[in-house]
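Why predict the complex rather than its parts? Because the way molecules touch one another can change local conformation, and only a joint prediction can capture that. The input here totals 773 residues.
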Amino acid sequence: MIMEVMRMSEVVRLPALKRIEGHGRISLFMDDGGRIADAHFDVTEFRGFERFLEGRMVWEMPLMTSRICGVCPVSHHLGAVKAVDAMFGVKVPRAGRLLRELLHLAGIAQDHALHFFFLAGPDFLTGDGAGSRDILGLVAGNPKMATDAIALRKAGQRIVQIVGGRASHPVAAIPGGMSKGVDQAERIEMLGLARAALPTAMEAATTARDAVRRLHETHESYGFAPMPMMAQMSDDRTFNVYDGTIEVMGEDGALMERFDATEYMDHIQERTLANSYAKAPYLTSRGPETGSYRVGPLARINMSDFMGGPRADGLLDEFHRDFGRPFHGILAYHWARMIELVASIERMVAILEDDEILSDVTRVKVERGGGVGIAAIEAPRGTLIHHYEADDVGRVTKANLIVATTNNTASLNASVLEAVTGMDREEATSEAAIRKMELGIRAHDPCLSCATHDIGKMPLTVEIVASDGTILDSRGVE
Amino acid sequence: MNKPRLATIALGGCEGCHISLIDAHEGLLELLGMVDLVESPFTDGDGTIPPCDVLMVEGAVTNEADERRLLAAREAAGTLIAVGSCAVMGGIGGLRNLYTAREAIADVYGADKPGEGLPPLTSSVKAVSQVVDVDISVSGCAPKTVQIVDAIKAAVAGEAYDLPRKNLCDECHRTKSKLLEHSADFVTDSVYSIMELDTIDPDLCFIEQGILCMGAMTREGCGARCTAANVPCRGCSGPSRTDFEQGAKTIDALAAVLPAGALMYLDDLIGTGYRFSMPVSVIPAAYDHGGDEDV
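Output of the joint prediction:
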């Protein structure tokens, strides 16, 4: 890698951080002594969903908000439909609920596989001999792993397509339930796919465990900063991505807060950041300085007592034995994610074995009206909250969305800062430092398409900012 | 023999078109065997588009950085394929054009809005073809995997790729009856959301059930998966011909068969009719004319 420091504010072209969903930017801030003192992971584009959702009909939200993200459209589709159900006080029939959960689990399975194998995995799966640290390197260097990844994604996306009507931006979840059921032939196909995916997922979990152990050796104590964790879970603390109660676990592992999604505004506040379209949520009880928290697989695995299936429960025990509880090391996100993959597949099998899945009572009729609807769902990257208000004919008057990646803003910033804190400009832009920042960021699996539902696409650039605010150096591509 | 060079780029959008491409699964490996993938969001390059034979562009132009990247990529590319409704028509993010950029930011972020050091928003969201020349267009949100793969293969082979020109009703399995009768009456007494129906008839045309369905105003080729899933079309593939406004056509077509008052009051003709095509439409975008007050 050729690297040269150019004059102030001139752009040096370097491999930018990619292989995240969307693009972002790192800004490194220097103190008077020329040492890195602060770091931000910025979101640099704005799409404006919260504005233009106003005036739309509220029952269209599941079809519109799925377009926030092409990677986890199912999460927004279901987060929105649950919020609209809440607005209209709907109780979804059991078959409809099971189909929605199945849809969500399949979406999570394909998403986790995509990230582990194709986006983050190349950093540590393909080995030093690989031609490139990306999907091409994986295909060339470890074809078995590439075909495993494809098999897992294919199973997940096929189930999304059957249950949701389409693989990309599914449509079948409507207020009141599901627009359609599944038949016996589809059930048999899905059951076959899920059962066949289980051994592949178990192998992936072993691969992830070994990779995390290796990463902990090579990167010692990197990414261990303690932070509260948040996840929505079942009352008995069984892993449950579809619904439950939101809990916050303190740095010491004690339960800090427990609340229904509808009360989120009493517990979470958002602040706007300079230089980024991402907002930064924090716990009201702690305030903006110390109220940041983590979400996603690491939080869920720390907080779950059970995963809901025998294989995943075994993996959960191993994780808790290996690391103790709670464990804050962000590199363990990768292992946590694959444990969730196994749990998701086991739960899909259980749902598909339930004869209720064939019921044609998948929905109830819903009368239009207005009011407030708030709901949360555990998206692949963590807690996702949809909040709508509508007038009497059902026209949206307010929309607020707190997305998973946004919840992780502080943890992302902390992992970037830790990689380069105290370094001078040269060290901070060395290949080793950039790789470490990338490793920390990718562990979270940030989805910038979601991150402000307002964001978008900028390849990652690194900016060095002097204490007077001058941009000294910017690396990457504008 | 050198393989054709393929690059892909994502502008303002959701990456769903890239996911739809990856959903080729084994077909992706086959495609990667046919071309040299020189740059994409999923590879480790630096984000600039090197000289390439075929370029796939996902996403719309939403800010000045998108615009610069697109102009540079156009220079580097032989055949440019606009993939997905954001690239082809501006897409759902184009609904931002109902407001000026300043209004949209102020509303989402309030008084303490970000801005310093961020790429300025373009005054309106633009389709790729409004900024550079496009050789092949594949609309859809997202297009079916096979449509994207076929378009890339056609471009690699130097062949044309055209989407079908009929409207969605042509490939929708639903039957029409009342719509085909000569009658002075509307086909229903009101306009409903599917959630309001006692049962959603899986085989009868949605319009005849009193549901605003965009099928008649929308290009076929997607396989009519939404109407097959018992959900009305929302027009994501755009108009079947580019010479009409999808939203205006909606009003034109439906006002004759559904009660117009109910359409206007009980549904959202703008947000449905123009959901994916606002930036390439003449109405009803807002323009920021500069100065402190909008004209």
